UniProtKB/TrEMBL annotation:
Protein localization: Mitochondrion
Family note: Belongs to the mitochondrion-specific ribosomal protein mL37 family.
Lineage of the species this protein comes from: Eukaryota, Metazoa, Chordata, Craniata, Vertebrata
Name of this protein: Large ribosomal subunit protein mL37
Signal peptide range: none
InterPro entries: mtLSU_mL37, Ribosomal_mL37/mL65
Main localisation: mitochondrion
Length: 352
């Protein structure tokens, strides 16, 4: 249709606007918490994460996990050779490349180890009541000495279960944490490296809808698979990230179960975490004892950490030949079965 000069324009209906539209951002009440995101690096490392989460550190794994490793009736030794074979598959045989890149072999190794763990479901059927969730998000908000804090973002690969992990510390051990003194960073602010963001709603969200059958967080897995060293978290930074997101998942779950009022929990929430770059492993068990986090006094949370555990010493992808003689054959050397047992024990924890 051609437009005729001087003719009236056709009437067009006004755009429909809902009366229930939200307020513009500038009119909403805004808070600015210091936020820990999945991409944030903590320069102060684990000590900073301990202060932010009001947590006492215990070196090594808890007795409940150690007991699984030492139980000969479970037959964990029978799986050691299979685990070594899976390491060789990830590092040597999974691709036609002469030397697989870390971004390739790290996820493959994780899937291989999880596959071995799932073989135990024949002996323990309740292990089949687990679910792996990828790219799931968590949000947890709390106050610490008048500082509003938040954990938010992607929390690695999360394994959920239909039943929670039982508490690993007794009531006496929990009460004994009252005497523990948390380390400070004066004159450095404890929120260093945290990002201050505009938030229009304090959110505590597990990332799953009500009624989801696998509603209890069990273990978080963090894969540091970047090829470039500077793009990966250092072990100390990775442990801090593991603690913050284990705490975030536990706090969001505790508030969903018991409400937002600060309190010492009658039934502590336990969340585990495993981090790896495809060779070096970090193991963690976190127990949330209290949601009363404002003051340094009173009951503290607990975390057990077994750090810097090599699964193997070296992967020789291409044989080294000198003067026609093979000096270093291709293969995996220095395999550490205890590291695999720790991975498997954390998987079995809560069922065995």
């Amino acid at each position: 249709m051609e437009k005729v000069p001087g003719a009236s324009e056709p009437a067009s209906p006004p755009r429909w606007h809902s009366r229930f539209h939200s307020l513009p951002a500038k009119h909403k009440p805004c808070i600015k918490p210091s936020t820990m995101k999945s991409s944030a690096c903590s320069s102060a490392g684990l000590r900073q994460a301990q202060w932010l989460t009001k947590t006492k550190l215990v070196e090594g794994l808890p007795p409940a996990v150690q007991g699984i490793m030492d139980n000969p009736a479970l037959g964990l030794q029978e799986l050691e050779e299979r685990a070594k074979h899976m390491v060789s598959h990830a590092r040597l045989w999974d691709t036609a490349e002469a030397a697989p890149r870390r971004e390739r072999y790290c996820p493959v190794l994780f899937e291989n180890l999880i596959h071995i763990c799932r073989l135990m479901s024949g002996k323990y059927p309740s292990l089949s009541k687990r679910m792996l969730a990828r790219n799931c998000r968590v949000a947890a908000t709390w106050e610490r000495e008048s500082i509003l804090l938040q954990v938010r973002g992607l929390s690695g690969i999360l394994m959920n279960s239909m039943s929670p992990i039982p508490p690993v510390a007794s009531k006496e051990e929990i009460l004994a944490t009252k005497e523990h003194v948390l380390e400070t960073f004066y004159p450095i602010a404890p929120t260093i490296d945290l990002q201050e963001v505009n938030v229009y709603k304090e959110l505590n969200d597990t990332g799953f809808r009500d009624g989801y059958p696998y509603s209890h967080p069990h273990t978080l897995f963090f894969l540091e698979s970047a090829n470039v060293l500077t793009d990966r978290f250092r072990p100390e930074q990775l442990r801090a990230k593991m603690l913050m997101f284990a705490f975030g998942n536990a706090l969001a779950k505790a508030k969903a179960l018991h409400g937002n009022d600060p309190k010492v929990l009658e039934q502590p929430v336990v969340v585990q975490s495993i981090g790896t770059d495809g060779q070096l492993f970090q193991f963690m068990v976190f127990q949330l004892n209290t949601t009363d986090l404002v003051s340094n006094d009173g009951v503290k949370n607990l975390v057990w950490i077994d750090s810097d555990q090599n699964l193997y010493e070296r992967a020789q992808c291409v044989p080294e030949v000198k003067k026609g003689v093979v000096t270093k054959p291709a293969g995996i050397s220095g395999f550490q079965p205890d590291t695999f047992k720790k991975f498997l024990a954390l998987y079995l924890h809560g069922t065995v």
